[in-house]
Structures are given as structure tokens and as C-alpha cells.
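Check out one such.
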Amino acid sequence: MLQNMNTASNNNIVSICANCGKEGDDLKSCTACKLVKYCNRDCQIAHRPKHKKECRRRAAELNDELLFKQPPVEDCPICFIRLPTLKTGSRYKTCCGKVICSGCSYAPVYDNQGNIVATKTCPFCRVPTPSTNEEVEKRMKKRVEAGDPIAIYKQGVYYGEGVNGYQQDHKKAIELLFRANELGCVKSNSCIGYSYEFGRGMDVDKKKALHYYELAAMKGDSLARNNLGNIEARAGNFDRALRHYTIAVRDGFDSSLKNIQQLYLDGYATKEDYTKALQSYQVYLSEIKSDQRDRAAAADDEYRYY
């Protein structure tokens, strides 16, 4: 009986405009804080002076709820073991556009009869591995033309750094990074943030840098997360810096572990904070470990993943 009364009570809740007091079911919530509703934009503008302070406080709380969540992890599409954070721990395949771990990239490929394929091929699509840099670049350009966000991001990085035969061109780099971002490449957000922070190809804009770092961090980019920690530490917000570093450590970013150690030595983090970070990093290492990756790392430092 009590349950039915509560249900009826909830059904009778009426929305009220925070400015004029008008009741209705079609009122629109404040998009920033979700705390109040308005019947139209005029009411929202009129109520803004009274609502602004509370709105900003709640909007910041909502943003932090999203910002400080541990992001999801990505697995290798071949062995289904977590991909390492270190960039040498994975390979981008210009043949099929897949990112696979160093272990699977190093491992021999077998045919349908269980025989090792004589020619080195991609373990995902079985296309022969290119033998020259020219062939790699030719495939890369095809991936860019096909709209592959990772290839577009990589080409943007090449232009930005002036490497792999690309003449340094920050304007071209930014164009490619924004295009990759629109197509969903997480790492491009981090590069755009860096460009805004240090004025590479665009005017310095710290607020925009922070925005793009946050976008990248929430989607799992540990470098961007570490950069956010650095920004907070420089501002004296050591609690927030520690939270960012802790998430980055869980994602395997060892520089953040060193930063937590420094916070501990400087008296801005506790011994328990540092101990938990060490334990978290060990958990990450156990998650990315495999016999094949160990063999690859032992055979060639190019395949190092830890």
C-alpha cells in the first residue's frame, strides 16, 4: 500500500520554471547543472544572475564526476590481452588499420595447415609486411585517403615534428589532427591540447588546452591525464594532481608514478598514496604480460612493452 502511495506521489510531481514559477511538463533543464528548469530561453537569461554561482559549482561537480573516472581499457584484437600503454608495446598496421600488441606483431604467422608462413605477414589480415619505408608510406597515404582516423593522426604528428620524410608544417598538422579528432581518434585530442598549451600552429590558449586534455583523458589517453596532473601541480592543486596521476598510473604511465613519488617526497602525498600507486602499477604490468610479449622484448628492444 505504501509503495502505491509513493508511486502516485511521484506521478504528481510538477516541474516549475525557476524564473517565473510557471508549471508544466515541457520545461527544459539547465544544460550545465541540471538543477533547475525554465519554460523558455528568456526566463533562463533573466534568472541567470541569481543562478550563475550555483550553476557553475554544480557544473564543475558534474564535470569532475566524468573526469576522474577510470577510463575503459583496450585489448589487442589478436590475443585479447590488454594493450600496453608504452607506444613500443603496440604496432599500427598500415595494411588493415589495426593496432596489435608487440607480441602478436613479433609472433610467427601460420597458414590453415599449421605451417609457419615463410614471408612475414600481418597476423590480422595476412597481407605481406612492407619491406621498405616507401611502401609503408604508400600504404599510410592510402589509409589517410580512406578516412582512417589513426593514419590521419599519425600523418598530422609527422607534419608537426617534421619526421618520416615530411617537411615540418604546423598548420597542416593541426588540420589533420582536428580531422582525426572528428573521426574519433583519442590521441589527437592530446596533441591538440599540447598545440594550444605551447602555441604550436595556433595561438596559446590555456583554457582550450585544458579542454582537449580533459577530452583525451576521459577517453583513456594517459599522457593527457599526466599533463592534467602537471597543470594542477603547477597551480598548487596537489590533491587534484594526485587524482590525475593515480588514474594514469593505473593505465601504466610510469612518469605519473614518478610524479606521485615526488609529491610524497615534497610532503603533498602520503606514504599510503605512493604505496597504492606502486601496487596499482604492478597490477597493470600483470595485465599486459604474456609469454609472447616477453619473447619479443627479449629478442629486440624495439618490442619493449613495459
Q: What stands out?
A: Residues 221-306 form one domain. The first strand starts at residue 15 and ends at 16.
